[in-house]
Model the fold of this input.
Amino acid sequence: MTNDRAASIEAEGLVREFKKGPRAVDGIDLRVAPGEIYGFLGPNGAGKSTTVLMLTTLLPLTGGSARVAGYDVVHEGPQVRRSIGAALQESALDPFLTGREHMRLQTAMHGLAAAERRARGDELLERVGLLDAADRKVGGYSGGMRRRLDLALALVHRPPILFLDEPTTGLDVQSRSALWEEVSKLASEDGVTVFLTTQYLEEADVLADRVGIIDHGRIVAEGTPAALKAEIGRPTVEAVPRDPADRERMARVLERFGESAAASPKGVAVRLRGGDAELADVVRALDAEDLALEHLQLHAPSLDDVFLTKTGRSLEGAGEDEEGGDAETDEAETVAA
Amino acid sequence: MSSVLFTQIGHVARRSVVRTLRQPAQIVPSLVFPMMLLAINASGLQRVTKIPGFPTNSFVTFALAIPFMQGALFSVMNAGTDLARDIETGFLNRLALTPLRGAALLIGLLAGALVLGVVQAICFLLVGLAAGASFAAGMPGVLVLVALSMLITLGFGAIGLVAALRTGSGEAVQGLFPLLFVFLFLSSMNLPRNLIQTDWFRHVATYNPVSYLIEGIRSLLVTGWDGEALALGFGIAAAIAVLGMVAASAALKTRLVRT
Done:
């Protein structure tokens, strides 16, 4: 995606400070082009949800500025809200209402004409595969069904920009894939700009045109997944000896080809200094030392490698050390406001 | 009010009624508990009517005003808990992202409580009449009683909304319920104020606004048309409703920090 067109989402020096604690968002600059899927990747507590709440006008900015659909989020809140759809963290649904009743309420709140409400509701329920379950109470829906309904509700007024805050957290693989497919279609077929937060590497990698990696409220890397990985460059080779007693010897052989990297408990891994081309040399060297292999695998660089390089920590589990999630912090602040 | 506002109020109210009707645990106690208390009081306190100066010889008629007050107190819990749950689950944020007006949200939620209040009032009247209560103000008085009862429900429902918006917690709203019941028990619910012998209790009951709400309803059952009792009942109920709505609007602005 390019930056030469008018941006759907723009932010400069975005800051959100909470009364008791560090800056949840600490000077973020963003530029998301129309029709782009922008993945905002980071661990729990990194500032993803706080950023979304500010961009969707639900949380005042402490500093900086942001425009969404060309409107200032501070001074033109109603215009921003008319231009966006949002499925925020946790499916905010009423367990006592049916899917169709949710659609009726949402279409009415967005001011759709009475004659159009039912048709629009059914159209979206069909699109997300919930038409058969439309008259069932949401309390009986699975996690995937709730998320799909959440997505449908965000689309009732045909917004050109969609915010999805961790839309697949807690979903099984099948539900996750179905949602990815729907989000991709929204961008590719309907030209919807999607701002998606996630803590899943694969989600950002598969779905996003561009990824911003956020840690401690700051963007530490930004670009297409391919470009970010290319920046890190070198692949990792992991070898598992057939005889566990050979692990140390195998490590000494592999060290000739690069610095060590994270590996499975039984294996040894190094980041190849000379790239993919060195794989054949690695095999020959192990053979020369008479080291039998149980398993040998070449790992292409991942976004986790990017995160590791930029922050010194692995993304997986990085949020566990931090103080709660964004949502908790935000709720505390909202109550205090 | 514009048609958009009416549409929004209608849909919020509809949701409120639908979700209440789908939760028997919300409806049944608000109907059964006041009736049980009426039955216990009426059977145990009938001899109170022998006290010189007691305004009626039917304690059921005298005590029938109490369920209407209790019903109103249940409206605090229903309206407040529903809103608190919306805050807890993020449903309020979903609504905040639509062009929903704050007034439509508050009025819609209270309209839902009022629908339940009407159902309660009709049940209490039917049970009261079946138990032998008389109705001094006749049929027009029934309509006035329902109107006063609705106004009281509106006021106490607004208090529930304030509690929900200030705390964002369903448990906190439910914690308010026993506190409001203390007001009920420290009122003239079981004896006319002039017959309360204990000084401090009589003073508390005199300063307790709940006494005047009960006496407004009771006047229609026992006395007929008592202008002073009705004026005080409607006046205090209206004041609670207005203050409650003003406080709820302010609390909503704080809660909905959308720009």
